[in-house]
Structures are given as C-alpha cells and as structure tokens.
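Protocol step 4 of 5: obtain the predicted structure for the target chain.
Materials: sequence only (see below). No template structures provided, no constraints applied. The aim of this step is simply to have a reference model before the mutagenesis design in step 5. Sequence pasted as it appears in the construct record:
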Amino acid sequence: MRNIGSINRVFWLLIGCSFALALATSAAAVWITSKPFLVETQRQAVLSQAQRVAARVDAILDPSESLTGFLSSEPTLVSYIVGYVMSDDGFVDRIENTTLPDDISEFLIFDFSGTPLSFHVVGQHSQSLDTMQAARSLSLEVLTTNEMMTRVVQSHVGKIPDEQTILIAAPILHRGFAEGVLVTVVDVPLNNTPKADGMVTLGKRIVQSPDVAHLNTGDDNAILVPIGSTGLSLLFTSESNLFKAIGQEMVTKAILAVSAALLLPFGVFGWLGKQTILRPHAEVQRSRNKLREQQKELSELAAIARKAEEAILITDLDTHIVWHNPAFERISGYTASQIKGQTPSTLLQGANTDPKARAKIRAALISHTPVTVELINYRNVTEEYWVRLSISTLFDDLGKPYGYMAISSDISDRKRDEANLLATTSAMEWQALHDELTGLPNRRCFNVTFEEHCRAEEQTSALAIIRIDLDHFKNVNDTMGHEAGDLVLCEVARILRDVTAGKNVPVRIGGDEFIVLLVDDGSLQVAQDLAETILHKVSQPIEYEGKIIRVGASFGIASSECMLVERRELVRAADAALYLAKERGRNQVVAYGTDEHRKVIGVRDTAEQIRCGIERGEFEPFYQPQVDAQSREIVGVEVLARWVHPDRGVLLPSSFLRVADQLSMLGTLDKMIMEKALQDVSTLEERGVHLPKISFNVTASRLSDPDLLVAIDKREFRKTAVSFEILESVFLDDQPEFLDFTLDLLREKGLSIEIDDFGSGHASMISLMRVRPDVLKIDQRLVMGAPDSRVCQNMVRSIIGIAESLEIKVTAEGVETRQHADMMQRMGCTILQGFHFSEALPFDDLHSFLTTHQGGLRNTG
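Step 4 output (structure tokens):
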C-alpha cells in the first residue's frame, strides 16, 4: 500500500508542476497584450456611468428648480415677504397641498436684507449650520442679480459624501423688485458605496462648474461631466488608482479564464494516467488486503456466533438452513440433524404465529430489505415461545444476494411481564374510573366523558343531564344499617344500567347521588320519559332480610335542546332543577325550563348584588323595641338585618338570607350588622341614652367564630346588656359538644342566652335543661293565633309553665294588636315585642322612639 501511495504522489506532483508552468506563461502573454485595451475600455465604461449619474442628478434638480420658481411667485408668499400679512400660514398650506419631489428636505425664506424669516422642514431632518450659512450667502447674490441661482454645499475636504445638498434660490419679486428669496434645499444621493472586494472605490461629487479648475482631486484620471444647465458638474474620482486597479482586475479575470481552459486537457491527461497506470496497481493491492481482512473477520464472527446467546441462522436464497449456532439448538429445542436443510417457517412457526408478521417477513425477503418482528415460534412442535427476530440479506462482493441471516432471541419472559402489567394497568384504570360498590362510572369518568362531548366539534344531537338524588336515604342507613343502604345503591345502579343503552352513561357521583348523561338523544322529552321510568322502578319495594325497603328519588333534568345554557353549564342547570324538585316535595321530576332559568338568573343577580352590597356597606341594623308586659317600659331592642338597596329600598331578610346562605356569606353579614349595632349603642350612650339590653340573632356556625367574642370584648359601652338569640332548631338532643362550652364562655363574659322561635317543635326538655337559657321567645305564629285558637292559647300557657318551672323569662313575639298585648300579659309573659308597639326602626328613628315613648326607658342602674 505504501508503494501505491508513493506512485500517486509523484504522478500528481508532475501534473501540478506542468499545469503551473503553462498557467504562468499564459498569464504573462495576457498581461502584455491585453492591459492597454482593457484599461481604455474600462475608462469608457466609467465615463458612460458618469454621464448616467449626471443625467439622474439633473432629473432630480430640474423639477425642484421649476417648483422653486413657481412657489416664489405664490401670492401668499409675496404677501408675507412684503408684509401684507404677518404669518406664512398661507404659504405653508400651499406647500402641504402640493406634491413635492422626494428629495426636497426644506424651504428657507429670506427678506430683502438676507435675514432668514422662516423655514419649513418637509423631509426627515433639518439642515446643518453650513447649509444655513450657504443659503444666506446665496440669497444675497440672488437679491443682487434678481436671477434664480443654484449652488452646491461643499462637504469637508478629504471626505467623499454619500449625499450632497443643493440649494436652489429664486427671487421673490414684487412690482419688479426682489423683496426676498425662496431657497429650496435638495438632498441628492450619490451612493458612494465601496465595492465588496474593497479594491476600487469611485468617488462622485457635485461641484460648481467655475470652481472645477481650482479643485485638487489628487487623481490624474478624474472625470468631469456637466449636469444639464444647472451650472453644476459631476466629478468622478478614484481612490487607489481606479483605472490601474480595473486593468489588474481584468487581467486577473483573463488569467482565470485561461486556467479554466487549461484544466480540461490536464484533467483528461490526469484521468487517463490514473485509469491506465494507477488503478490496476491499486486494485491488485486492495484485493489482497481485503482477502486478508475477510478471512480474519470470518474467523472472528464464527467464534462470536458460537458463543452468542442469540440464535443465529444462515440460509440460502430458498430459505433452507445451511448453518446455525449452538444457541439456536438450545432455544428451538431441535438437534443439528433435525435442523439442517429445513426452512425456518416449516420448522418453527405454527397456528398462533401472527399472519401479519409472516407476511412482513416474506415481503422483506423478496425485496432483500432488513426486517425486525416479534412473533410466536414453536419448540418441539407444541410449546409456544416468543422471539424477537431480525433478518437481513447477505450480498457478495459484486452486490448480488446469496442468502439470508436471521438473529433471534427468546423474549417470552418480557412478553409475560408486559401482559401482566397491561392487565394490572387496565384493572387500576377501571378502578380509578368506576365506583367500587356499584360498578358504575364515577365522577372522574363522568367529568372526562362530559368534557369530551362538550369539546366535540360536531354536535349534531342534543346533550342532556339527568341528576338523581335518593330521598331520605339516610333513614335507610340509620334504621336498617349500611348493608341495607349498599343494597339500595346497587339496586339503583342496576336499574340505571338496564334503562340506559348506546353511548348513554349512568354515573354514581357519590353517596346517594347519580347522574345519567344522555348522548345518543338528549332531547328534553326523551330525558323526561327516561327519568319517569327510573322513578317508577326506584319506587318499587326492595326486600332485605324479610323487611321491605322503600325509597324515592328526586330528579333534575337539563337539555341543550332548550338552548337556555351552554353545554358545560348543563350540570349546574340540572342541579338547579333537582333543588326545585326537593323544594316542591321530593319524589318527582323537574326539568330545567324557562321559568327555572329565570329563577336561576334572578338568584345569580341577587348573589352579585349581595356581594356588591356587602362591599358598599348597604346592610344596616334595624331595631325593634321590647317592652315590659306590666309597666310598658322599654327593656331592650332586638337587632334585625335590613338591606338598604339603592334602587329597591329597604329589603327584609326573606329577600336575601337564603341566597346569602348559599354564598356562605351569612357570617359576613352577621359580623357587619353586629359591628354597626355595637357602634350605634355607643353613640346612644354618648347622647345620654342608655339601652337596658340589645339582642342579636346568632347562628350555630357564628357561635364557633372566634371573631364573635373579639367583637363583644371590644364594645365601648358597659351599661347595655348583650343577649344572643339562638333558634330553637339549634338545640337538638345531638347538639355538638362545642356548643355547651361556647355558651358557658358567653355567660362568663356577662352575656345572656335566649331561645328564639320556641314552640316550633325542635328542642326537647332534656336539651332545654342542658342549655339553661335566660329567656324563651314564643314563636310569633302561636302568639298571633292565640286570640282565635284555643290550641294556640294552650300551647302558650304550656310554654309559660315550662319557663316558670325553669325560672326563666318569657318574651312574646308577634304582638300586633292591643288584644295580643293584653292576652299575653294575663297569661304571664314578661316581655312583649311586635308591631303594636313599633316596627323595626333605623337608628335615627330608634333614638326618637326611645326619647318619646310614653312608658319611658327602664333605668339601667
């Protein structure tokens, strides 16, 4: 190989030296004979270019000169320069309404003494101080000659400007005399950009024709071309000896052309020498080296193949096995005598081998392309095992196929692990998307499915939601146990599966709540019919351990067919319909229609107004006085919340409390009302009025709020007692333990406890003894019905008897008439409250009432 390399180097060295000598000789001949001609030719080309540039500059200056002469005679300008008008606004308007050449950058106006009066920039920048001085000097010359003149503003010596400024001055004549001068500033681009190679730079410069002789260009080859009749000339100069450089460039190009011409014969000579001299020697040497390398590779590959863990087969073009390694015998289970001469497909493949994989192998063998597949093979005919098989074609030195090589490995363990993992994953996914008890899809599955249908681009059919809530299901768990409750839930799930078909989805979203998503046909009628069917089936009795279980269900339906809400809002609409079904007595179907939508919108508007009202402080405390049943003295006031709406006036709690409770804002309202009421009491004391007692309605959740005690501790009055009125419904037998602790803490702080609406039937005597209230407030329905109902009278007497036995006071609410007041007094009530004495009053009216009430205000001592 070393000899062949030496021959190559010597051969190509001789070719290179010969080519270099021929090229040098040709270059010298071209240089001597062609340079003068080329230099003259280039000079003529530069002159032609100079003339074209001069014509372009003249084309720029000619319209500007005409425009200057035209505008100098403009009447508005003449009036301004003579002094008839004090402003040049008319001339400015004339300029703005005239289409100006792009190269004009400024107009300058000078008076008869050469003093600048004004200038108007119309280009992108104003001119330099040199331009202003040149313009003033030119205006003085024009005033002397009364003729239009053109002058170039010369740039600094030694610099080649990329742009030159030309001044065109015209006299402003009035009655034959020059009263001023209009100077137009024109920026003429020269594009003095150096060539990309940096060798030759042509310098273009505009000069005054009379000054040409005085210019020191430093270049004997400078070219001067007049610019029309402007009195200006275009001077072409070259930096770094223009014409000599051009001649050198032309000669260089000629030499390159000669080089290209010489390459062909020398290239042909080199190619023939390589083919006839070098290649035969190289081929012989390469063949010897390749033979040695192949022998070495074959011995190494054979050793590797015998030790390989993968099974290796080599077949002929008819796929008959001609060689195999020991690993193939071990994996396939066949002996060498059983293998040789067989075809792999006949020997290894069977009934469960994938037909698609076999077809893929056949196609690869026909096209002689590599292929990799995973398929089932058979060991000893009966035992299946998975292999990963790679097949490639074997080619000889001439590229002709002569057989195939197959490499396979047993992947049965991996396939078994993959199957187990897939089964486990499927089971986990099923559990994640289904309810464990009923087997129905769960809330997560519903959310995914519902979102997919909401996002679907083609929404040809309507979508409907049936919201289901079992009625009194808690009673089943409480009375018969959770196993009975689970039985009911599974039975409901079975019913939902039986009545739904196609793409419709029954879902258990939690507890005793279900949803049916109607996808196939979500029309309102179909949804109502299906809900009625489910209601009928759910209402049937269920037998459990010899007992009968009966449950009902409330249904809320919303369909996109009604076009009342967007698809994503259907669940919320169905919830609203379900709420109405429960509100109307349960065990019925309610569809979300126009009326329901109007109510929802109304609640939504009310909710938003409540939020705004809280922010603006529109909720105010009103006060209803309480009087002693005997003396008629004022013994306290009850604080009642009122919404002082800016548009609807004063609103009662019935118009906003339910919505505020849904918004979880009752605590915020209670806190706001209490803070304002405590401040009002402090204001009364500052005015010398001392309330005996003020009572607040407090919810059970409010009692657990730490801010409640903080607010009481911060009160600024001490003579007025504070009482909390708690609804009777709070005091059930299973009342939370924290309530007893909270009540004890309130009593330690000097507060009294009153039970409101007593007689509505919630509290037992045991819970009443636990609470030990200071006052019982009889429900106003009993008080108002007492004059006409003996039952109500007996109930009132019973409550008063209970209070006397517990040694607590009794307040009668709803005292509307004098008859009510006298009857409650005779029965033994200690405190009276109602419209007979006063309605709920705002703070200012309360102050007047307290100071004018006939019974007076009980002394707080």
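Step 4 remarks: The chain has four domains: 2-243, 325-411, 434-592, 618-852. The domain at 2-243 is CATH 3.30.450.20 (Beta-Lactamase).
Proceed to step 5.
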